[in-house]
């Protein structure tokens, strides 16, 4: 087990933040998507005490869960313990999580359902999230760990809102886009503004960089991808840059495939997070010199651990050496991952030598 992130006198000495601002570091800074999660025994202990929404909306719990992987492994990044679906909930859509099924929301179907959403209540309903960030920022101020805020990107959030949860074929959201583009555009417009405001509030509370998760970006045909993935992300990034010019924005257009380069170019995100299926060497020529790359080790390698994981991690870091690279997975940590494998990965990346 690794010592917690070491204290450091100079809060500017945050390797992850500097990397997100375009610098190359060796070895690369590291954090893992879903690093606070069910693979950790200390996470399961809290999970037994409170349901998911309570954990997200009780600052003490959100702070503790955010810090668990930092205390155990000394990650360079602490991602706020929360969820992308806190925004629909804050807009007024009911939300609960069911064991074995995931999130459940009353699906948006009719014009009245859309009209019932109210962005005016988001700030008040997300107050506990900002409280957690304020406390985390204080706790991490004298460490080398960077605090990351996040939100879902409008397209992915709209999928859950319209489908009422996860989906295999996204038929309802596609139908809405095709049959009621006016209504769908209004929803996306609302989500763009609400997401930019919420992320701006996270930054004001102490988040040092923010990430937009577009987990279902890859289901869209190219023109829809441009309109509903690239354009909303470009606008959120622009709104954030007006208010917080130096705060990095990470974008994750999961399964974006050949559209990933266009996404990086046209959204202007500071760092593009690559999913497992993407070859970084195919994307690099499409990025501007200071645009960073995050990712993209296969979570299945982490699940299995040992030499195949270590070799792949070394090769990935070596491939991206000399440019802004944040070491991460291509998607979240599996809940079945042995804790020792995470320690082994952190050690493998930390011990990369000159
Ligand atoms: C699509 C999506 C969601 N949430 C998120 C995404 C985008 C990333 C991705 O594609 O995975 C993002 C998310 N969700 C969570 C975080 C916290 C920070 C972290 O990464 O550690 C983050 C960044 C906590 C969580 N969000 C959830 C859990 C597990 C629930 C629990 O512990 O009770 C955690 C730790 C629940 C969740 N939340 C969501 C689903 C579909 C589920 C159910 C699936 C599951 O149970 O793993 C929506």
Automatic annotation (TrEMBL):
Family label: Belongs to the uroporphyrinogen decarboxylase family.
Catalytic activity: uroporphyrinogen III + 4 H(+) = coproporphyrinogen III + 4 CO2
Record pathway: Porphyrin-containing compound metabolism; protoporphyrin-IX biosynthesis; coproporphyrinogen-III from 5-aminolevulinate: step 4/4
MF terms (GO), sorted A to Z: uroporphyrinogen decarboxylase activity
Self-association and partners: Homodimer.
Any Gene Ontology biological process: protoporphyrinogen IX biosynthetic process from glutamate
Assigned GO CC terms: cytosol
Site (Transition state stabilizer) location in chain: 83
Location of this chain's protein in the cell: Cytoplasm
InterPro entries: UROD/MetE-like_sf, Uroporphyrinogen_deCO2ase_HemE, Uroporphyrinogen_deCOase
Any Pfam family the entry gives: URO-D
Assigned keywords, A-Z: Cytoplasm, Decarboxylase, Lyase, Porphyrin biosynthesis
Domain (Uroporphyrinogen decarboxylase (URO-D)) ranges: 29-38, 148-164
EC numbers for this chain: 4.1.1.37
Role played: Catalyzes the decarboxylation of four acetate groups of uroporphyrinogen-III to yield coproporphyrinogen-III.
SUPFAM superfamilies assigned: UROD/MetE-like (SSF51726)
Origin: domain of life: Bacteria
Binding sites annotated in the UniProt record for substrate: 34-38, 83, 160, 215, 331
Record gene name: hemE
Protein name stated in the entry: Uroporphyrinogen decarboxylase
UniProt-listed PROSITE patterns: UROD_1, UROD_2
């Amino acid at each position: 087990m690794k010592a917690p992130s070491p204290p450091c006198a100079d809060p500017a000495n945050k390797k992850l933040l500097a990397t997100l601002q375009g610098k190359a570091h060796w070895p690369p800074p590291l954090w893992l998507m879903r690093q606070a999660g069910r693979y950790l025994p200390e996470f399961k202990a809290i999970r037994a005490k409170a349901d998911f929404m309570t954990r997200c909306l009780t600052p003490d719990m959100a702070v503790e869960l955010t810090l668990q992987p930092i205390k155990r492994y000394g990650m360079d990044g602490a991602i706020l313990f929360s969820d992308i679906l806190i925004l629909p909930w804050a807009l007024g859509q009911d939300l609960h999580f069911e064991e074995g099924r995931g999130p459940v929301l009353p699906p948006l179907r009719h014009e009245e359902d859309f009209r019932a959403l109210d962005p005016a209540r988001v700030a008040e309903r997300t107050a506990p999230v900002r409280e957690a960030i304020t406390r985390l920022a204080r706790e991490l101020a004298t460490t080398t760990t960077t605090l990351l805020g996040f939100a879902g990107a409008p397209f992915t959030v709209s999928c859950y809102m319209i489908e009422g949860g996860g989906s295999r074929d996204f038929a309802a959201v596609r139908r809405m886009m095709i049959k009621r583009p006016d209504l769908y555009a209004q929803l996306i417009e609302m989500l763009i503004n609400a997401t930019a405001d919420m992320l701006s509030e996270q930054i004001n509370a102490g988040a040092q960089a923010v990430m937009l998760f577009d987990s279902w970006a890859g289901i869209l045909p190219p023109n829809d991808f441009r309109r509903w993935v690239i354009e909303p992300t470009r606008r959120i990034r622009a709104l954030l840059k007006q208010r917080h010019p130096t705060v990095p924005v990470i974008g994750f257009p999961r399964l974006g495939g050949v559209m990933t380069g266009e996404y990086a170019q046209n959204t202007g995100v500071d760092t593009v997070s690559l999913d497992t299926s993407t070859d970084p060497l195919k994307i690099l020529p499409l990025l501007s010199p200071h645009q960073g790359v995050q990712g993209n080790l296969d979570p299945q390698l982490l699940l299995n651990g040992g030499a195949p994981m270590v070799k792949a991690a070394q090769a990935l870091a070596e491939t991206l050496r000399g440019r802004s690279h944040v070491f991460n997975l291509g998607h979240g940590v599996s809940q079945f991952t042995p804790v020792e494998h995470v320690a082994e990965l952190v050690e493998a990346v930390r011990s990369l030598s000159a």
